[in-house]
Every structure is written in structure tokens, then in C-alpha cells.
From TrEMBL:
It comes from Candidatus Kaiserbacteria bacterium CG10_big_fil_rev_8_21_14_0_10_47_16. This is VOC family protein. It comes from the Bacteria. Residues 2-129, 140-257 form the PhnB-like domain.
């Protein structure tokens, strides 16, 4: 099981977005789908029986898409970086992902890349498309990219150090510094959490946007001890704590989730599923024992 899973929060378009993404990347498929039951529909305002979440592979990397309503908006502060093998591939992705969306940086040669583009698709999700100079060395085709801007400008290096301290098999793998007004900033960096690759950068431009919970990072935990440890380390905004969600000091949202939860919510008995859902909706930090008790009741 993938340890850290990016979660994309849509209004009601998760199914259409996933269909688009799966059509564009090889080694992609839907893994499972969860629907709103009575309890979750009442809390969210979404129709009972409609799609709640879709877990899917995209180029061999697991994502979760959810229909949560219009609460959050995607911004370029967290984007998805794609390493492309050929010009044909990057041209295809550029055309498909920018259609109905927008272009932040047009597809062309830049100092840092032989061919690069930054686009927002018609659902608002931002994508950075890069023609990899040596695709044979690419370990992970799609990587979450976190831009530290606004009040978090110049905090990319600090944040990466903090994140890598929390997970095994984690490290900063590359860092390209620069200087602005006499102070060091991160132009571009890559880091691994539990062996999974992410990217980061600082930006001092007044972008008028910041990180939002529209893209969060799910952490699959096997024990309550692990949940407690990560929760205590990461949670920095008490009012953001709900149903396993938290927000850290840099504005990044995380979902600290027991691996057993998915099994409990997919039980063939609808009454058991609903009891687990009700129990989860009442929690901030998730408690495995209480979820299992609700399932058995």
C-alpha cells in the first residue's frame, strides 16, 4: 500500500476528472469507489448514493479524488509535476490538460528545461509538464509539487527538513538554492517521504493565492501509536482538525488515516458501514479502537 496518497477535493466533478486523467496516462485504473451513505450525505449536503471518493492509479501512483462540495479551491501552490518521455507526450498532455482551463507558463524551452509548461485543467488542478532530459532515470512519473509563497516564502527548506524527520526512508534528494535580497531561497528541490517523491520551491512573487486543502496528503497508518505521533507533530491549526484532517504550520493539509478504515467502510453490511461513518464524522483525530467498536456494534 502506498504510504502517502494525494487527495484531490472536487465540488461534484471527481468522476469526470478521473475519467480525463485516466485517458491521458498509461498504467492507470480505478481501484475502488465509495458512495455517500445517509450519515455522510447529511453532513456534506451531497446526494445520498452519489460518489464520495474514487481511489485510482495514475501512471502507477495512487491518488484519491473526492466530491466534497464547493468548500475548497485548487491553486497552483500545490500542483502535480509530470516527467514526460517524448515531445509527442508533452504536446498531448499540454493540449488535453489546458483545454477549458488555463496556461500559467506556455509550452516552450526555458533555462531549466528543454520543454516545459504549467497549466490548470478545466477542473482547476494545476499541472507542471516537463520533458525529462534523461527519462530512464525517472523514478516516479507524477510528483506533488509544493510552492511555499506568501507568509511561507523562504520556508521550503525548513518544511522539507521537518517532513523528512517524520517518516522512515525519507530524505532531501536535491536542492538548488538561490539568493533574494541577501537571503537564501529554494529555487527547486526534490525530497522523498517513505520513498515517495515530492518537489518544493520558494516563490516571493505576490501570487494572490496560497495553499488550500483542495489537495491534501493522506498518510496510511497501521497503528494508533503512529496516528498519535504524526497528529501531534503535524497539527498546528486546531480549528482545521476534523475527521482525520489537520493543517500543519506551513498550511499543508494532511489526512492521518488508519489502513483499516477503508476495509471497514467497504463492508458488505450497509449498517456496519454507516456506523463506522457516523463514528468517523464525530472524530477529529481518528481512533482505531472506536472505529472497530462501531463496526462490531
Amino acid at each position: 500500500m502506498q504510504k502517502i496518497v494525494p487527495c484531490l477535493w472536487f465540488d461534484t466533478q471527481a468522476e469526470k476528472a478521473v475519467d480525463l486523467y485516466l485517458s491521458l496516462f498509461p498504467d492507470s485504473e480505478i481501484l475502488n469507489t465509495l458512495h455517500y451513505d445517509k450519515a455522510s450525505a447529511e453532513v456534506s449536503g451531497q446526494p445520498e448514493g452519489s460518489i464520495l471518493t474514487i481511489e485510482y492509479y495514475l501512471a502507477g501512483y495512487t491518488f484519491l479524488a473526492m466530491n466534497g462540495g464547493p468548500n475548497f479551491t485548487f491553486t497552483p501552490a500545490i500542483s502535480l509535476s509530470v516527467q514526460c518521455e517524448t515531445e509527442e507526450e508533452i504536446d498531448k498532455l499540454y493540449a488535453a490538460l489546458s483545454e477549458g482551463g488555463g496556461v500559467l507558463m506556455p509550452l516552450q524551452k526555458y533555462d531549466f528545461s528543454p520543454r516545459f509548461a504549467w497549466v490548470a485543467d478545466k477542473y482547476g488542478v494545476s499541472w507542471q509538464l516537463n520533458l525529462a532530459p534523461d527519462y530512464s532515470t525517472v523514478k516516479q512519473k507524477i510528483e506533488p509539487f509544493i510552492m511555499f509563497t506568501g507568509e511561507n516564502f523562504r520556508k521550503a527548506k525548513e518544511a522539507m527538513g521537518f517532513y523528512t524527520s517524520l517518516f522512515e526512508n525519507s530524505r532531501i534528494t536535491s536542492l538548488y538554492p538561490s539568493e533574494e535580497n541577501g537571503k537564501e531561497i529554494v529555487m527547486h528541490a526534490t525530497f522523498e517521504l517513505n520513498g515517495e517523491e515530492l518537489m518544493a520551491s520558494d516563490s516571493g512573487i505576490d501570487h494572490k493565492f496560497t495553499i488550500t486543502p483542495a489537495i491534501s496528503l493522506i498518510v496510511n497508518c497501521t497503528t494508533q501509536e503512529e496516528i498519535d505521533t504524526l497528529w501531534n507533530a503535524l497539527s498546528a491549526v486546531p480549528e482545521a482538525e476534523q475527521c482525520g484532517w489537520l493543517q500543519d504550520t506551513y498550511g499543508v493539509s494532511w489526512q492521518i488515516v488508519p489502513t483499516v478504515l477503508n476495509t471497514l467502510l467497504q463492508d458488505t453490511d450497509p449498517q456496519k458501514r454507516e456506523r463506522v461513518m457516523k463514528a468517523m464524522l464525530a472524530m477529529k483525530k481518528l481512533n482505531i479502537a472506536e472505529l472497530e467498536t462501531a463496526h462490531r456494534a
